[in-house]
């Protein structure tokens, strides 16, 4: 139920605070005072669309916040599903800034409007003359029967089976599509794999082959240059090796004269040894390098093959080709196993389908067992709310399994004697629909944990004894459920356990909608005005008192 409601900077509301009673709350007021505006603000907590037009002061943000006692609504699973912290007293808040940007919060955690709508609709149920569209929704119609039949256990079992079956069906469909595609590509993939396998690729060979190719292509030039270096070092008239030895000997002879000379001598000796090692390596390379046309051709052909495979598979190195080969091998093995996996899934699908149909039949049987009772009860209530010739019938239709079972329910309605009932959304007027929904909610109130129910002038078009009956029905509903009724009827206003009056304050710079809870004397005066006009007579006051004291 709503523990408190705060509205700031919305339409004509500058600041409004409301703490409704746990039972029947009545809201009355002048036409245009802001009763509908309040419902618009509450609609923001249900995820309804908002923009800057809703702001009273365009430079400030609008905030609508509701605190709810949800301890008896069984919402723990929903909160867990939406990854929200469950609190028995939870706060929902909606903010709209001056640029029209909207933000939603549940227990101070930012949420999407979709999540807010999902949670909000479990907390507040608004009924007005404009909501006949609800009964065009097939889920809503089935849920009405479920609430009356109390099918929570059977529905939970069916939905568990339905999820298992649909998830497996999707997996099976994906595998069948994969099998179809794999058969189309199988020959080509086998050709690609055979080509890669025949190439005997090694991850590091490309770099090694490219280096070897350079040596083979320039073998003669390399051999010539290295030979020249070797001759200059050892065999020429002024051999570098001999001159280095002479210099090293000279430095060594004078190294004892200072630390600096000793260091230079040591460094020169080390450098000379390094040069000698380098020349030795040069000689070895010179001796091993040879012009080998056969090997050159072999390396060139190998690299050409690698480059062609890389181009075909759009990769930059041999490592990429090896990965593709591994993937093709995996797909080949997978294709062998795919048929067996599909066979197993088909068998499992048949088993799950049988289980699904079994749980669907149990759910459907329980629904159908209450349809006659539900319609008879509704038809009796319609007479009490001013539709003595009203007739409701529920038509059951079996369909393929969907998220709520194998049933679709059509609600047929006729307000007049001798007229064949038709789908309620096509024939019921606003007032008729409102009273029909009121009767439905009345019947369900004793069978399910309903959210806060808001009736928005559903009593339009009724008066006298009928209005009194509706008032008493609301009062009985409020025994176990919080009810908020926006009404213009004194009979209903008199049955309230808390009475709020909405009025427009024209003394401020801008007109503002205000609300106040009426004390007993003010409440009597307001109901008297509802009976006898702005200046009620003593007779109207006495009538108001009688209505208030009526049991």
Automatic annotation (TrEMBL):
<dbReference type="Pfam" id="PF02463">
    <property type="entry name" value="SMC_N"/>
</dbReference>
<comment type="similarity">
    <text>Belongs to the RecN family.</text>
</comment>
<keyword id="KW-0234">DNA repair</keyword>
<dbReference type="GO" id="GO:0043590">
    <property type="term" value="C:bacterial nucleoid"/>
</dbReference>
<dbReference type="GO" id="GO:0006310">
    <property type="term" value="P:DNA recombination"/>
</dbReference>
<feature type="coiled-coil region">
    <location>
        <begin position="328"/>
        <end position="362"/>
    </location>
</feature>
<dbReference type="GO" id="GO:0006281">
    <property type="term" value="P:DNA repair"/>
</dbReference>
<dbReference type="InterPro" id="IPR003395">
    <property type="entry name" value="RecF/RecN/SMC_N"/>
</dbReference>
<dbReference type="InterPro" id="IPR004604">
    <property type="entry name" value="DNA_recomb/repair_RecN"/>
</dbReference>
<keyword id="KW-0175">Coiled coil</keyword>
<keyword id="KW-0547">Nucleotide-binding</keyword>
<protein>
    <recommendedName>
        <fullName>DNA repair protein RecN</fullName>
    </recommendedName>
</protein>
<dbReference type="GO" id="GO:0005524">
    <property type="term" value="F:ATP binding"/>
</dbReference>
<feature type="domain" description="RecF/RecN/SMC N-terminal">
    <location>
        <begin position="2"/>
        <end position="507"/>
    </location>
</feature>
<comment type="function">
    <text>May be involved in recombinational repair of damaged DNA.</text>
</comment>
<dbReference type="GO" id="GO:0009432">
    <property type="term" value="P:SOS response"/>
</dbReference>
<keyword id="KW-0067">ATP-binding</keyword>
<keyword id="KW-0227">DNA damage</keyword>
<dbReference type="InterPro" id="IPR027417">
    <property type="entry name" value="P-loop_NTPase"/>
</dbReference>
């Amino acid at each position: 139920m709503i523990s408190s409601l705060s509205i700031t900077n919305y339409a004509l509301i500058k600041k409004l605070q409301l703490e409704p009673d746990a039972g029947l709350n009545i809201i009355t007021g002048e036409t245009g005072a802001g009763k509908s505006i309040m419902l618009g603000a509450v609609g923001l907590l249900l995820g309804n669309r908002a923009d800057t037009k809703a702001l009273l002061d365009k430079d400030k943000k609008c905030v609508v916040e509701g605190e709810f006692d949800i301890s008896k609504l069984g919402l723990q699973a929903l909160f867990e599903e939406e990854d929200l912290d469950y609190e028995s007293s939870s706060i929902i808040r909606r903010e709209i800034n001056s640029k029209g940007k909207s933000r939603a919060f549940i227990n101070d955690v930012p949420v999407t409007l979709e999540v807010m709508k999902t949670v909000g609709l479990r907390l507040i149920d608004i009924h007005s003359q404009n909501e006949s569209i609800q009964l065009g929704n097939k889920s809503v119609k089935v849920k009405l029967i479920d609430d009356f039949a109390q099918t929570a256990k059977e529905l939970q079992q069916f939905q568990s089976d339905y999820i298992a079956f649909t998830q497996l069906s999707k997996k099976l469909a994906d595998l069948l599509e994969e099998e179809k595609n794999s058969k189309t590509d199988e020959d080509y993939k086998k050709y690609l794999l055979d080509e890669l396998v025949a190439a005997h690729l090694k991850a590091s060979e490309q770099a090694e082959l490219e280096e070897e190719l350079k040596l083979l292509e320039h073998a003669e030039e390399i051999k010539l240059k290295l030979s020249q270096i070797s001759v200059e070092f050892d065999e020429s008239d002024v051999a570098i090796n001999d001159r280095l030895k002479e210099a090293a000997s000279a430095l060594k002879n004078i190294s004892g004269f200072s630390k600096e000379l000793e260091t230079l001598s040591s460094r020169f000796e080390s450098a000379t040894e390094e040069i000698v090692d380098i020349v030795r390596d040069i000689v070895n390379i010179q001796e091993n390098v040879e012009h080998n046309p056969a090997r050159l051709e072999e390396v060139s052909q190998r690299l050409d093959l690698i480059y062609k495979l890389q181009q075909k598979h759009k990769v930059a190195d041999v490592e990429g080709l090896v990965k593709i080969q591994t993937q093709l091998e995996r797909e080949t093995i997978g294709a062998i196993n795919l048929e067996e996996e599909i066979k197993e899934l088909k068998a499992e699908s048949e088993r799950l389908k049988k289980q699904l149909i079994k749980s669907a039949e149990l759910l459907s049987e329980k629904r159908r067992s209450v349809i006659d009772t539900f319609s008879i009860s509704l038809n009796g209530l319609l007479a009490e709310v001013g539709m003595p010739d009203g007739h409701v019938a529920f038509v059951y239709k079996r369909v393929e399994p969907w998220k709520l079972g194998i049933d679709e329910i059509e609600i047929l309605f006729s307000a007049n004697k001798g007229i064949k009932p038709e789908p309620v959304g096509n024939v019921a007027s606003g007032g008729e629909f409102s009273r029909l929904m009121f009767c439905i909610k009345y019947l369900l109130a004793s069978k399910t944990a309903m959210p806060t129910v808001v009736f928005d002038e559903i009593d339009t078009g009724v008066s006298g004894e009928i209005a009194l009956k509706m008032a008493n029905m609301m009062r009985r509903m409020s025994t176990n459920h919080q009810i908020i009724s926006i009404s213009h009827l004194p009979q209903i206003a008199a049955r309230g356990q808390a009475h709020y009056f909405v009025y427009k304050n024209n003394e401020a710079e801008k007109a503002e909608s205000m609300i106040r809870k009426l004390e007993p004397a003010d409440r009597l005066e307001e109901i008297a005005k509802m009976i006898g006009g702005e200046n009620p007579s003593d007779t109207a006051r006495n009538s108001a008192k009688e209505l208030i004291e009526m049991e």
